[in-house]
Specification:
3-stranded antiparallel β-sheet
Length: 122
């Protein structure tokens, strides 16, 4: 390898490190609530600081189990065919979400300020 190759690798590693620092350092504030939407309609808002288990039932027979524990939310069970929502990491940062497409369920972390916002696009 030549000197130029090492410089290019060092620049790429530095840029990746700065991006990771920005993504996880700037957005390090934990949200206060978990908001549950079914087919675009907010059905429930739960605090992240209270351990609870919530069964989310949809009109088409879908069932998802959401567990809030130690300030994190995680989808632990679902009867959807792909189960991608159960493989998602647990969430607690503002803006993070877990989505179950077959059941049209979106679980999002929000702050108290975001609870009263109206979506102007919809």
């Amino acid at each position: 390898m030549k000197k130029a190759d090492f410089i290019v690798i060092a620049v790429i590693v530095a840029v990746a490190g700065i991006l990771l620092l920005f993504l996880y350092g700037v957005n390090s504030d934990s949200g206060a609530y978990v908001q549950i939407e079914i087919d675009g309609t907010v059905t429930d808002t739960l605090p992240l600081d209270t351990d609870t288990t919530k069964e989310i039932m949809t009109e088409n027979g879908g069932v998802n189990i959401l567990v809030i524990e130690d300030g994190y939310a995680k989808m632990t069970d679902a009867n959807c065919p792909d189960g991608i929502c159960m493989n998602h990491k647990r969430i607690n940062r503002n803006g993070e979400s877990i989505i179950c497409l077959p059941h049209k369920v979106v679980v999002s972390v929000v702050n108290e300020d975001d609870l009263d916002e109206i979506d102007a696009v919809a």
